[in-house]
């Protein structure tokens, strides 16, 4: 099994400046590169408390490309309806050349109404924009000329530059758990980026089976909150609960939310975060002593997971994250 590092964006913990956060991200990525992790994933987040330092994965990935030597550099995820596919290919072709062919993209439809300040006309049809854009990304990446409308309102055929280093664009499709998205990923022959959040072990097994029927050789990447330490249950408790509460608060500001998140009292929000923490400690999180984490990795492999993207930046200090990665690296040689 491949084991990667994923950033998903904690709050600006402890008042640390954003410049310092970028330094920490680069330090963690260099450590992951040195320790033999498969990839480093960075997300796309906009206008929220959670994920303040991740507005554009291609920009940060360019820095990661020159700061590392062998680790794959991936977007997890890129909200495709917010971008012109031509610009996506141009930006990531730069990163692909800088990294000598180490990039990968996971395409997401987007979900938060505030994100679509950048493209309000695409919000209603965001799923169609994302899925239709996947084949277009592949065509443009291959160097095909594609016709678009120029500034005069007339059609013109363009070929994006620079030429990518890699002949093919490695693509994932991000899913929050909808079985139809797993089927779509199989039909489109993309990999899948999913998470343990929002689904049981049995539900995950069923969705992987749906995907495998259509794409037996595709890669299933699963994000899991991660900290390998004997005292992880105590260490991660408060930071992870604070992160989860911030995520709920973000959901409450989504114009398409049914209002339940906004109606939660402080006490109810605390109880929800406590429940989620206990769930992750029981199943769904790579949290705990090495032996417990080893068993979880084996279980995920048995379910058909090919890669675990270890979500590390949910509020722990950078030095604890780095120490946890060192301990996790010792398990990689034993991973199934």
TrEMBL record:
Luciferase-like domain location: 7-307
The record, for InterPro entries, names: Bact_Lucif_Oxidored, Biosynth_lucif-like_mOase_dom, Luciferase-like_dom, Luciferase-like_sf
Q: Which domain of life is it from?
A: Bacteria
Gene3D superfamilies attached to this UniProt entry: Luciferase-like domain
State one Pfam family annotation: Bac_luciferase
Give the matching NCBIfam families.
Answer: seco_metab_LLM
The name this protein goes by in its record:
MupA/Atu3671 family FMN-dependent luciferase-like monooxygenase
The source organism is: Streptosporangium jomthongense
């Amino acid at each position: 099994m491949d084991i990667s590092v994923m950033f998903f964006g904690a709050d600006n913990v402890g008042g640390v400046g954003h410049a310092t956060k970028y330094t920490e991200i680069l330090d963690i990525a260099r450590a992951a590169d040195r320790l033999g992790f498969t990839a480093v994933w960075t997300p796309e987040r906009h206008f929220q408390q959670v994920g303040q330092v991740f507005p554009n994965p291609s920009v940060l990935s360019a820095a990661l490309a020159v700061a590392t030597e062998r680790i794959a550099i991936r977007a997890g995820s890129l909200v495709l309806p917010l971008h012109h596919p031509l610009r996506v290919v141009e930006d990531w072709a730069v990163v692909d050349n800088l990294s000598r062919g180490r990039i990968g993209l996971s395409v997401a439809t987007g979900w938060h109404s505030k994100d679509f300040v950048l493209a309000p006309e695409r919000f209603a049809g965001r799923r169609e924009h994302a899925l239709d854009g996947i084949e277009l990304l592949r065509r443009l990446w291959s160097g095909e000329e594609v016709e678009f409308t120029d500034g005069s309102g007339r059609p013109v055929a363009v070929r994006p530059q620079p030429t990518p280093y890699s002949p093919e664009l490695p693509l994932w499709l991000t899913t929050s758990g909808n079985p139809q998205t797993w089927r779509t990923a199989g039909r489109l022959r993309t990999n899948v980026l999913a998470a343990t959040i929002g689904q049981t072990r049995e539900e995950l097994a069923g969705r992987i089976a749906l995907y495998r029927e259509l794409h037996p050789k595709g890669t299933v990447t699963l994000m899991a909150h991660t900290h390998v330490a004997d005292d992880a249950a105590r260490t991660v408790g408060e930071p992870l609960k604070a992160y989860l509460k911030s995520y709920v608060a973000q959901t409450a500001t989504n114009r398409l939310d049914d209002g339940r998140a906004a109606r939660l009292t402080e006490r109810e929000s605390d109880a929800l975060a406590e429940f989620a923490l206990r769930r992750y400690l029981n199943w769904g999180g790579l949290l705990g002593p090495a032996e417990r984490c080893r068993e979880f990795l084996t279980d995920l492999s048995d379910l058909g997971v090919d890669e675990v993207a270890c979500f590390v930046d949910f509020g722990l200090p950078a030095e604890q994250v780095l120490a946890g990665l060192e301990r996790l690296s010792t398990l990689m040689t034993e991973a199934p």
